[in-house]
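In response to reviewer comment 3 from the previous cycle, which asked for concrete evidence that the modeling workflow produces usable outputs, we include below a single protein chain processed end to end. The sequence was submitted unchanged, and the resulting structure tokens are shown without manual editing.
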Amino acid sequence: MTKQYQLTGLGNAIVDVIAKADDAFLAAHAITKGAMNLIDLERARLLYDAIGPATEVSGGSAGNTMAGFASFGGKGAYLGKVADDQLGRIFAHDMQAGGVHFATPPLKDGPETARCMIVVTPDAQRSMNTYLGACVEFGEADVDEALIADSAIIYLEGYLFDKDTAKKAYRKATRAAHAAGNKVSLTLSDSFCVERHRADFLDLIANETDVLFANEAEILALYQTTNFNDAIASIRGRCDIAVVTRSEKGSVIVTEKETFEIGIQPVDKVVDTTGAGDQYAAGFLFGLASGYDYAQCGALGALAAAEVISHVGPRPEVSLATLAQQKLGLKVAA
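The workflow returned the following structure tokens.
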């Protein structure tokens, strides 16, 4: 039976504040380079004042993925929590304007809408400082089981495991998805997130996850090894498909019996790596939902990642459907 939605993402609804700075700025403000650092509202305001000129765009890992998925022409939905404030209204508008269904009721009383202060250094590394705010109020009551059942694939952030309320929502969503015969995909999100939740993630991958996304640092952290081949051997067969991105080395798709190595889509200049993994997942999942083979899914992921690292911001600035036809010869529904 055809589902109303090809993909539904669940994640932390966050507005990104992106600015360029040097390593000295990171040191002066005790920011861990290349990682996601959780901060409180006071520090969020302090960094906002210190960061200088910035670009403000709706973000959040799964939100970015859903925006990319829609850019390919995919039909998707998103579940996440914002406050009933200016940033929350901006986030909702951006999702809906991008073609993604978003109807989670906003938080009326409580924390402000989440925001992530992203510092991009000259080497294109992004260091994220996240005030979670309203997004951690996302709970079981916000999981629309009918929508989940009507979604061929759901996609969840590992970051959801940082708060118990969101963790319970995650479990409810996976149960609803599998009860309806749908697939569950998970991104590990961040190597520090893996360190915080390794036992939970190992259990999820073995018992609840059909498609896993990780970058090289995350998969190494998951299996506590420095050897990439050992990590790949460890993940093989733990879920139906494991997809591991390796920056300029491309990506590796692992099933129980097969391995596919996918090259990068070249770009003239890497400007900002924010959202690269999110957009890779968008391309791969669009391909999977559309019935493409794994190599084509990987190529679509590489294409989306290449587009987003060529400019500032975590979401595509041009039609990914058009790029897929121009660069890969794949005619997708725009």
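The first helix runs from residue 23 to 28. We consider this sufficient to address the reviewer's concern, and the full set will be provided in the supplementary archive.
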